[in-house]
Amino acid sequence: MRWTERDLARINALRDAIQTPLAPRKYRNVPTEFQGLKFDSKHELEIYRGLKLREAAGEIRAVVRQVSMQLPGTKRRIRLDFMLVHLDGRIEFADAKGWETAAWSLKRQQVKDAFGIDIQLL
What we know:
This protein has 122 residues and is an alpha+beta fold. 34% of the residues lie in helices and 29% in strands. The strands form two sheets. A four-stranded mixed β-sheet has the order 3-4-5-6. The protein has a two-stranded antiparallel sheet with strand order 1-2. A hairpin with a 6-residue loop joins strand 3 (60-70) and strand 4 (77-86). The protein is elongated.
């Protein structure tokens, strides 16, 4: 049996119509979008919304997302979810995590040792 152009077009259309489910993410996070901003998880979005409410209420001066800093002694970087600027000028770094992994714990300690920055887990 030979395939005709029409047969191939029909098979390709069927193949394109079938959507194979993606494998679940490693930490079961669901990427989310809100007001044109992309978040790695629903948890991160909820924390962001709470921080923006605090900013609107005048409890904190500013919220900055996705702050990146270089890990000391390497070319690797760490990306923190939030930097909070308090009314008195204090700066606080925070990350939205469901749980703390060993690799994250090590990076967190490297940042603390090198820069004296304590990263909060939210």
